Amino acid sequence: MQDQTFSRLAFCVTLASWVAISCAPAESDSNNEGGGGATATSGSVSSASGSGVTTSSSSASGSGVATSGSTTAAGTGGDNSGGGGGAEPTGTGGNGMGGWPEGAIPMGNAPVPSAGCGKATTLTSKEYTISSSGQNRVYYVDMPRNYDMNKPYRLFYTSHWIGSRYQDVKNQDFYFLKPQLEADGEQAIFVAPSSDGATWQQKDHALFDDIMAFMNENVCYDTTRVFATGFSFGGMITYSLSTNHQAEIRAAVGIAPANYNIWLPEKTHKPIAWMHTTGMSDGTCPWVNNEGQKRGAKFIALEKAEDNGCTIPDNIPTSNGAYSCYDFKDCDPEHPTRVCTFGGGHTNIDGNPNWIPIESWKFFKQF
What are the φ/ψ torsions at residue 68 (nearest 5 degrees)? Predict the structure, then answer.
C-alpha cells in the first residue's frame, strides 16, 4: 500500500513539473518564473493556489497540479471559391463551402450533415486507434445516448493538458461541457485524442485531419458546428489549430493557452470565432510573457480580434478578482471574440460553480 501511494505521488509530482514547463519559453525570460497552481481535476475543486498537488476533490496551491484519476458545409470539389450553391450550403463547388463565402456562415444556420448521416454506425463510446503520420494513435469517442443516425450533432474536439491522456479529459466530462449540454437537453459527440508523448506537436494537425475525415464518414454530425477546446497545452494546440483550420472549426475556446512553445503553422489570419480564459496570476501561461515579442494570452486575444474584424481597444479590460469577460466590439457578426480573465492561477476550474465550462458552453451554443 505504501509503495502504491509513493508511486502515485511520484507520478503527480512529475505531472506537476510537466505542467509548470508547458508554456515556459525555450529561452529564459525573467517574467516567466513562478506562478500559480495548475488545476485539472474531475472532482468539485473550485480553485488552486500555493504549492502542492492534489488527486481528488481537494485544492492545490502554488506551482502544483491537481489531477483526476466549422465551418465546413456540404459542397464538393473546387478550391474554396464557392460554387453552384445558393444561400444554403448545398452547392457542388468550393471546398465544402457551398453558397457561403468562406468563414461567413451565418449565426443560427441550418445544420449541414456529414457524409455519415443517414447511415448506421458501428461507433460506440470507447477508445479507437487510427493510423496517422505513420503511427497508430489512440483517441476516445463519446457518443450520444440513443444516437440518431439522422440527427447532425455538434462535435467537440477536446485536447488534454501536458503529460496527460484522453482519459483525463474523459474523467472531467470533456472539460465539464457534457453536463452543461445535458442540463440544456442537448447531446453531442465528443472526441478526445491522446498526444504522442507529453506534448502536442506538428503532426497533431494531421491527426486532427485524419480523425475528422474518419468521423465524417462514420457518424452524423453538423459540419458547421465542429468546436475545439483544451486546457493549458490543450489550449495551445487548440490555438494552433485555430490559425489554419478555420474552414473546419466553427469556434474554439482556449483555456489558459499560450502562443509560444507550441508548433504553429503559417497562419492564414482567416476569421474564426474565439474565446479564451486566463488567470491574471498565471505564471505558467501568463497574460503577458514578453511584450516586445508579443508572447502571451493577451496577444492571442489581439490577433483573433484583428482577424475577426473587431475594434481593438487601447487596453483590454481585465480582472484580478472575480472573473470578467470582455466581448470585443464591432467583430464580424459570424465571429464573436471574447476573453475572460480572473484573479487566479493556471487552472480550468475556478469558482463554485465552476464558471469556465458555463461560459464556454454559453459561447458555443450561440452558433
Answer: -125, 135
CB atoms within 10 A of CB 202: 12
Contact 23, 289 (CB under 8 A): yes
SS3 287: coil
Distance (Å, whole) CA 152 – CA 137: 26
pTM score, two decimals? 0.80
Q: What is the DSSP letter of 257?
A: -
- Strands (DSSP E) contained in 257-334 are 273-279, 324-327
Which amino acid makes up residue 334?
E
Cα 29 to Cα 25, 64, 127, 282, 295: the distances in Å are: 7, 20, 40, 15, 11
Residue 31, pLDDT > 80, answer no
Q: Please name the residues in contact with 296: beta carbons below 8 A apart, sequence gap of 6 or more.
A: 258, 259, 285, 286, 287, 288, 289, 290
Encoded amino acid at 6, one letter? F
Nearest-angstrom CA–CA distance, 49 and 39: 9
> Helices 233-242 and 203-218 meet at what angle, rounded to 10?
80
Give, in order, the Cα–Cα distances in Å from 305 to each of 16, 86, 271, 336: 32, 29, 9, 9
Q: How many helices (H) and strands (E) does the chain have?
A: 7, 12
Cα–Cα dist 240/221, whole Å: 23
Q: Which secondary structure element, helix H or strand E, spans residue 233, and what is its range?
A: helix 233-242
Distance between CA atoms of residues 7 and 135, nearest Å = 29
For residue 276, CA distances in Å to 31, 110, 227, 236, 319 come to 21, 26, 13, 11, 14
Q: Which of 33-47, 56-70, 219-233, 236-250 has the lowest mean pLDDT?
A: 56-70
- Indicate the DSSP class of residue 315: S
